[in-house]
Amino acid sequence: MDSCGACNSCGVKGHEGTCTPVAAGTADKGCAVMDQATCGHDGTCDGAGKCASYPDGTACGALACSTKAAAIVSPQCSKGTCMDAVLISCAPFNCDTTTNLCNVTCADKNDCAMGAMCKGAAGGLKTCQ
User: Fold this and answer.
1) No. of H helices and E strands in the chain?
2) pTM value?
3) Are residues 84 and 47 in the same domain?
4) CA–centroid distance for 86 within its chain
5) Which of the two ends of the chain, N or C, has the fewest CB atoms closer than 10 A to its terminal CB?
6) Contact 20, 12 (CB under 8 A)
7) Could you list the mean pLDDT of each consecutive 10-residue stretch along the chain, which spans 129 residues?
8) Within 13 A of 40's CA, how many CA atoms are on the CB side?
């Protein structure tokens, strides 16, 4: 980092003496590396004179079960924010929040995705339909 500030330099070839953004991916001490879970700065420059954030699709949390989405979700960075992205749809079953896996049988409608019903013979295996 020189007097131009983070992610800019007056020593860029062809632009010597003028503050110019450094190439994307250039490590810069002025860009603090933030924890990946924050989706914040990754310690490099974006090529436009600013500190870069973790790229979209970077994992920012553990796999989890979303009963609202009836899916297993993987938190991923999206434009600097950690968002749930559906990894596996469990429909017509719901997701088991204890195991973070999709149900494969059901005991009642709560084991099924919204709109599906748990059906089957009493005492036998039941399925969501």
Assistant:
1) 0, 11
2) 0.66
3) no
4) 10
5) C
6) yes
7) 86 92 96 96 96 95 86 92 89 92 93 94 88
8) 7
